[in-house]
Amino acid sequence: MSSIIKVKNLVKIYNHSVKAVDNISLEVEKGEIFGFLGPNGAGKTTTVKVLCTLLRPTEGTATVNGFDILKQPNEVRKSIGIVFQEPALDDQLTGRENLDYHARMYGLSRKQREKRINEVLELVGLKEKADILVKNYSGGMKRRLEIARGLMHYPKVLFLDEPTLGLDTQTRRAIWKYIKELKEKEGVTIFLTTHYMEEADILCDNIGIIDKGKILTIGVPSELKSSLGKDVITIKCSNPTKLKEVLERERWIKKTKVHNSFLNIYVEEGEKKIAKLVKIAEKINVSIISIDLRKPTLEDVYLHYTGKTIREEELSSTDRSRMLLRRRFR
Predict the structure, then answer these.
(1) Tell me, what DSSP letter sits at residue 213?
(2) The predicted structure's pLDDT at residue 1
(3) What is the pLDDT of residue 144?
(4) Do the beta carbons of residue 54 and residue 26 sit within 8 Å?
(5) Is residue 61 classed as helix, strand or coil in its secondary structure?
(6) Burial level of 309, CB count in 10 A (0-12/13-18/19+)?
(7) Where are the beta strands (DSSP E) in 89-201?
(8) How far is CA 131 from CA 114, 143, 171, 185, 208, in A?
(9) pLDDT on residue 329
C-alpha cells in the first residue's frame, strides 16, 4: 500500500510562543482509517487544519494525495472532504439543499449533483429525511448530513474532527457504523480525531497518540495494547510506590505504573501471577486492599505514555484555560 498522507517535521506555533504542534511526522496509508487520539488542546485540530490548508505550518511540510500543502493548496482542497467539530450546516435549508449548495461550490453539473446527492443520502441513511429543514434534524442526523456533504465531490481523503462529540452513546455507535461503511463502499481514506478511547479502538486501523503537540506513539490498536502485556493486574495497597520498586526487579513483569493510589502491573498469564504478587507484598509489609485482573485497554496505553488519563488531561487543560482567562480579565 502507498501513503496518501505524508507529514514531516511539522510545527505550528501561535503568537511566537505557543507550540500547538511540535515536530510531528507520520504517514497514513491509502484506504485506512487513521485516528489521532488525545485530549482537547493536544494539537489534533491544529494538525487537521494544517493538512487541509486552512493554516500554514511554522516549519515542516506535508503532502495529501501527492500534493504539497504549501505549493499546491488548491489541489489538496480538491482531494479532501472535511467535517469540522462545530456544525457548519444552514439550518434554514433542507438536507438536500445543503448538499446541492456544497456540490455547486465544487462545480458538479446538475446531473452529477442529483446522482451524488442520492448516493450519499443513501449511504448515511437520510434519504427519507432529505427534504426536511435541517433545523428539525436531531444531533445525530446533522452529523450524518455533514459527513454526506464532505463526500459530495468524491474526495480521496475525508477528515473527521471529533465526529461524535456531544452525541449520546446510541447515536455515537450509529455514526461509527456509517464511518465503517464509508471506508468499504467509498474506498475513501479517513483521518479522524477523537478523545474517545472506544471510538479509536473500534474504528481505527492505526492510531497516533498525541499529547501537548507531540506524537508519543503510532500503531495498530491491538499491537499497542499487547505491547504492555497480555494482562493487567491492578492492585490497591498501602504503599504502591514501594511495591512498584520491588516488582521492577522481577523479570516476569513487563511494565508497572502507579496511578493515584493504584499500581498497574503488566504481565503474561496474569491469573498465575497473583499469588506471587501477594507473597511479595506480604514480605515487604505492604497491605493489599484489592486486586483486579483484566486485559489491557487503550486507556492503559495512553496512561503508560503520558502518566495521566485523557479525562485528567482534559481537566488540567480546562484549569489552564480558566487561569489564562483570570489573568486576561484582571
Answers:
(1) T
(2) 58
(3) 93
(4) no
(5) strand
(6) middle
(7) 157-161, 189-194
(8) 13, 16, 21, 24, 39
(9) 42
For CA atoms 14, 15, 16, 18, the dihedral sign is negative
Domains in the chain: boundaries: 3-224, 229-295
Instruction: Identify the pLDDT of residue 324.
Output: 45
What is each CA distance from 90 to 29, 102, 114, 257, in whole angstroms? 34, 11, 19, 49
> Burial of 247 by CB count in 10 Å (0-12 exposed, 13-18 middle, 19+ buried)?
buried
Q: Which amino acid is at 108?
A: L
Q: Is it true that 3-224 and 229-295 share their CATH fold? A: no
Going by CATH, does the domain composed of 229-295 fall within 1.10.510.10? Answer: no
**Single-letter code of the amino acid located at 248:** E
- Rounded CA-CA distance 235/267 in Å is 13
Supply the pLDDT for residue 109.
Answer: 93
What does the pLDDT read at residue 310?
80
Q: What is the pTM of this model?
A: 0.86
* Sequence-ordered strand ranges (E) for 99-143: none
Does 3-224 carry CATH code 3.10.450.50? no
- Name the phi and psi angles at 311, rounded to 5: -60, -40
The 3-state DSSP composition of the chain as helix, strand, coil percent (nearest 5) reads: 40, 30, 30
Give the H/E segment covering residue 200: helix 197-203
Which is nearest to 28 in space by CA: 5, 2, 60?
5
What is the predicted pLDDT for the residue at 328?
43
Give the three cell numbers for residue 195.
478523545
pLDDT score for 315: 60
Phi-psi region of 260 (alpha: psi -120 to 50; beta: other; left: phi over 0): left
Terminal alpha carbon distance of the chain: 55
pLDDT value for 317: 53
Supply 182's cell numbers.
Answer: 464509508
Residues in the chain predicted with pLDDT less than 50, given as ranges, are 318, 320-330
Residue among 322, 302, 145 at smallest CA distance from 224: 302
In the numeric block, the cell 488542546 is attached to 41
The Cβ of residue 287 has, within 10 Å, a number of other Cβ atoms equal to 10
**Residue that has been written with the C-alpha cell 482542497 in this structure:** 77
